Amino acid sequence: MNNSGGRPPARFLLAVIDAGGTVPPALSLAAELVRRGHHVRVLADPTIETSAGSAGCAFSPWREAPHFNSRAEQTAMIAALEGGNPFRTFRAARAFAGKAMTARYARDVISIVREFPIDAILADGLPGILIGAQATGRPTAALVAQTYVRPTPGLPLLGTGWSPGHSFLGKTRDKLVPRIANWFLRPTIPRLNAVVEGYELLPLDNVFELYDRCVRVLVMTSPSFDFKAPQLPDNVRYVGPQLDDPDWATETGWRRQGSEPLVLVATSSIYQDQTYLLQRIAQALGQLPVRAVLTTGRAVDPATIQAGANVEVLPAAPHGRVLREASAVVTHAGHGTVLKSLAAGVPLVCIPMGRDQKDNTVRVLRLGAGVRISKKSTPSQIAAAISKVLERPQYAAAALRFADVLAWEAAHRPRAADEAESLLRL
Q: E-assigned strands of 334-413?
């Protein structure tokens, strides 16, 4: 069925890498395009093939480009990259990426466009993917499955967990640090230009110029959740969070047990060395008069978590359904979990572990919709934080207020699929 305003179905290529939490939003967009009558081919790691099929998409694997063939392979790589040993990290990255990584991603994108009819491309922000997409001449949208990532004067740098500076020193920091970050990226420009110029594209002066060459940059979060930039490029669009649960989570049966307040626990869906934290959270919940659903994700065996009778330990659960009945969420503060919780009006206990999680946490704190504790917190400290969120109504009230904001934006602002369709009119 074609619901795209009477236009004939279009053919999209979704080119992504399996970075965990960035995949469900991209596939949610793909599924919506399929529902609107379009055809979507996913170019991605083989680990994504089943989920792509569940979204109604055709699938092609990365061929030359680095990719994961299994969850075990992904877990081993992330453990090496985030293990804290610089030599091991360098060796693992070199073994995984190999030589000419950027060129290999670009060649794979170009090869698929030559092999299959494609009208427009939706692409992860990896340079090789964007170069390949732009070399095809197809209109391209870069996908940002979190808050805005580009180092921008006036915005706190991604990964710092900073709030915008209000003092002279804070404003100076936010002005200078993004420029310093761009300066540190400059040594990559010659290598990128060696690929860019091979496709007769104009040379780059800045890595993020690849974003400027896209028709759209789709930031898949709420503009009210993110910090407001002094100025954004004209092609940037905030399209709201994608709130669908991934297919592997909806397959798990779940039914509420008991009448006590319900707490959902969700950390990373991929490896982040989270087993010990999950065990401490389970111990904390055992001290409280609550019911809990603790989801371990696909990198942790539920059998490794020892929990009391009031804690149900599952590999995954349909968070959308659980959140309709939950009173609090305990989380690493990944973007997907945070926005789903806020959309359901549920306050959070944020325990950031790394990546972009401190950035998401500081935005939750700005809204007043939760608290932050250290990833080294003891079970007693975790229990105290959960009790605080459950017992003080201001946290739930703030989460409910922001749920109304998200609902208004969803009803009145263009969505990701709308912006994807706009590529076809250019």
A: 348-350, 370-372
